Amino acid sequence: MEEITIHEFEFALINEFFTELERQGPGSPEETIRALGFIGNLSNKTKIADLGCGTGAQTMVLAQNTEATITALDLYAGSIAKLNVTAGKLGLQNRVKGIVGSMDNLPFQNEEFELIWSEGAIANIGFEKGLNHWKGFLKKDGYIAVTYESWFTDERPAEIEKWWVDAVPEIGTIGHNISIMQKTGYIPVAAFTLPENCWIDNYFIPQKARQEEFLKKHTGNKTAEDMIAFMRREADLYSKYKQYYGYVFYIGKKM
Ligand code: SAM
C-alpha cells in the first residue's frame, strides 16, 4: 500500500484539528525568545511580519518581548480569527494584527519590515523559495528568523528518509540550509536546534486528547482517520529517529 502523505489531507480538516491546540508545530516560548536574542536594533518603530503564524503562539511571545508592531499572516481564516481574539485578551490589539493571506504572494510593500519571522511554516512554499521571496519585503540589514525541518546527520535510515522526503522534498542538512541562506542574500547569524521538549511536550502530547475527540466527532470519515493515523506515525517515528532530524532555527541578516 502507498504511504499516505500530509499533502493529501484536506487543509480545512487539518486546521480544524490544530486550531484547538496552543501550537500547530514544534516550538516553545523559550526558543522564540532565544532566537529573538540574536536580532539587533529592535525598538517601538520596528515592524515584524510573522508568516504562517497559525493561532499565534509565537506571535504573542514576540509582542510580549518587544515593543514592535506585528502583522501575522496565515492562509487559514479560523487561525487568524483566534489570533486576533487572543491579541485582544492580552491587550496587544494595538500592536498585533492577524490577516489572512498566502506566504507566496505577500500583500506587503517592498522593504516594509525590519524582521520576518516564521516558525514551522516555510516548508509550505520551500526554504529557498521562501527566503528569496520574503527578502524583498525586508529592509536592508533586516533580519529573518525561521524554523525549518533539517537533517542532523549526512546519512539516516531509509524509513525516516522516505517519510521526510515525501513530506518536505527539499529537506537538507543544517550546513546545506545555511549555504542556501547565504546564496539567497543573507548573512547567516545563528542556527540552533529546537530541543526535544518542543516536539514532545508542546506538540505530540497535546495532540493525544484532541485526536480522541476528533475521531469521535468524525467517526466514519476516512480522511480524518487517515490524518490521525499519520499524526500518530509522525510521533512514533520521532521517538525512534529523533537523533537524525528536527527543527532548526535559522537566523540571517539581509545583505
Ligand atoms: N507558526 C505556527 C506554530 O508554530 O504554531 C503554525 C505552524 S503550522 C506547522 C504551519 C502554518 O502554516 C499553518 O497555520 C498553515 O495554515 C500555514 N500555511 C500553510 N500554507 C500557507 C501559505 N501558503 N501561506 C500562509 N500560511 C500557510
Tell me, rounded to a whole number, the average pLDDT: 95
Largest sheet: 8 strands, mixed
Shape: globular
CATH superfamily: Vaccinia Virus protein VP39
Broad structural category: alpha/beta
Q: What bound compounds does this protein have?
A: S-adenosylmethionine
The tally of structural domains comes to 1
Secondary structure tally, helices:
9
- The radius of gyration computed from the alpha-carbon positions, rounded to a whole number of angstroms, is 18 Å
Count of strand segments: 8
SS strand fraction: 15-25%
The CATH topology: Rossmann fold
Low-pLDDT stretches are none
**First CA to last CA: what distance?**
48 Å
Helix proportion of residues, in percent? 40-55%
The CATH class turns out to be Alpha Beta
Helix and strand pattern: HHEHEHEEHEHEHEHHE
Characterize the structure shown.
The chain is α/β, with parallel strands linked by helices. The protein has helices at 11-18, 29-36, 57-64, 77-89, 127-135, 158-167, 174-183, 196-217, 222-241, and strands at 47-51, 69-74, 96-100, 113-118, 138-151, 172-173, 186-193, 245-254. Strands 1, 2, 3, 4, 5, 6, 7 and 8 form an eight-stranded mixed β-sheet that branches. It is globular. It binds S-adenosylmethionine (SAM). S-adenosylmethionine is lined by residues 15, 23-25, 27, 52-54, 57-58, 74-76, 79, 102-104, 119-121, 124-125. Residues 15, 23-25, 27, 52-54, 57-58, 74-76, 79, 102-104, 119-121, 124-125 line the site of S-adenosylmethionine. Residues 43-163 form the Methyltransferase domain. It comes from Sporomusa acidovorans (strain ATCC 49682 / DSM 3132 / Mol). This is Methyltransferase domain-containing protein.
